[in-house]
Amino acid sequence: MTSLINSINEYLWAVVIVLLVVCAVYFTIRSRFVQFCNMRDMIRITLGRDTKEKKKIGSFEAFTVSLASRVGTGNLAGVASAIFVGGPGAIFWMWVMALFGSATAFVESSLAQLYKRRGTDSFYGGPAYYMMHGLHRRWMGVVFAVLITLTFGVANQLVQSNTLIDSLNETFCIPKIYLGAALTILTLIIIFGGVRRISRFTAQVVPFMAIGYLIVAIYVVATNLGELPRVFRLIFDGAFGIRQVAGGLFGATIMQGIRRGLFSNEAGEGSTPNAAAIAETSHPIKQGLLQSLGVFIDTIVICTCTAMIILISGLHDSGADGIILTTHALESEIGSAGRYFITIAIFLFAYSTIIANYFYGEVNIAFITHSKKVVNVFRIVTGIMIFTAATITLQEAWGYVDLMMGLMTVFNLIAVLMLSKYVWRLLNDYKQQRKEGKEPTFHRSTLDDIKSDLDCWE
């Protein structure tokens, strides 16, 4: 089965990569390089607060929910796996896809805000909703909802939980069965609390874990400044080297960089729009800018931290893979404390991602049915997946993730391309108000031709 899935992935990802590159470049040019030219606005919105009501979910909290999903084992184990399979050059292609892919994240998240729906205690939305209300193709939304639920509710949970349980088992020698049970209980406590509890949890955990990991990485780099020329030479030689082309590794290098980059930053995949839609904000473009910033933070900052630690250590060709490689690399740089730090980091990274992944599944189940029983069954299935994660290998989980992630991405990018014309009108409206010195606000009458499709924005 693993061999069959890997064979399918080879053909599927040839299509996915073309779509990702075309969309990323087109959106970058069409938006006039929005991800670079509006960095000040991204930071301003991040530090500000769009809603003053305590019961409302603001832009920052929605941003941390999406960042919690992005920042996970992909940043530690995924980067290591990309280097293990594709060599150091894979990091370069992760950078490229992040820089251009952030424009895709901007477009899909702006659309999620535009077509969001009003719920009982929060807004909700995502690709399934803009497929139905924007493209008027409910069947397409249903297919996407099923794909994202299987991807995040099953496949990604296996990867995150497997990595977390393995890391805790190796460091503390606690039997995996006990670790699986404890992790399941902790997760169920959070997810049975609903979207508000999820957003409050991620808003507290994500900044802490990201800053802590960044500080350690800066320390490793600062104490090894003389190694940086060698490290960057490894990356660029691996990305364009004659040896890689002659040895047939060039394609594998690009493939691993893009696959693991997408798994980590999720730009274009269609997952983060589900988080972007829940925010109470005055203009859809604000959440689009925030989610674009999230791609930078995830890949350009955090993934690069992991890559620097591994390449500085010189253990990238030691034969170790995944979280084991990252653990050994950090341990070689800061001593035995590195093992415990990585274990704590992977717990925070993976656990917050498990919570955010569940949220994506719940939102899309609600698109298909509003049955509370179905949602509760999904919560139980999530617990089962977490508990059984230790029974499979990480490579088996990666194959399934790549398959489902690829299918999700194809469906989402087709919809985003078709609806992107509304984002350009929103962006022009936002820029005009900023130029006039106003705090941008949006009313659905601005898009009079589609205002009947918009549930919010009175």
Report on this structure.
- It is a single chain.
- Strands 1-2 form a two-stranded antiparallel ribbon.
- By secondary structure, it is an all-alpha fold.
- Helices cover 77% and strands 1% of the residues.
- The radius of gyration is 21 Å and the shape is globular.
Mean pLDDT across all residues, rounded? 82
Query: Which overall shape is indicated by the principal axes computed on the Cα atoms?
Result: globular
**Spatial separation of the terminal alpha carbons:** 51 Å
Helices and strands, in N-to-C order?
Answer: HHHHHHEEHHHHHHHHHHHHH
Low-pLDDT residue intervals, each spanning 5 or more residues: none
Radius of gyration computed on alpha carbons = 21 Å
Strand runs, count: 2
Please identify the oligomeric state.
single chain
Helix fraction? Answer: over 70%
Structural class: mainly alpha
| Lateral strand order in the biggest sheet | 1-2
Q: Name the beta content range.
A: under 5%
List the helices and strands and how they pair.
Blueprint: H1 2-30, H2 34-37, H3 39-47, H4 59-70, H5 73-86, H6 89-114, E1 117-118, E2 123-124, H7 127-133, H8 138-172, H9 176-191, H10 195-222, H11 228-240, H12 242-246, H13 250-265, H14 272-276, H15 284-313, H16 322-334, H17 337-368, H18 372-388, H19 394-435
Helix pairs in contact: 1-6, 1-19, 3-15, 4-10, 4-15, 4-17, 5-13, 5-15, 5-16, 6-11, 6-13, 6-15, 6-19, 7-8, 8-9, 8-17, 8-18, 8-19, 9-17, 9-18, 10-15, 10-17, 15-16, 16-17, 17-18
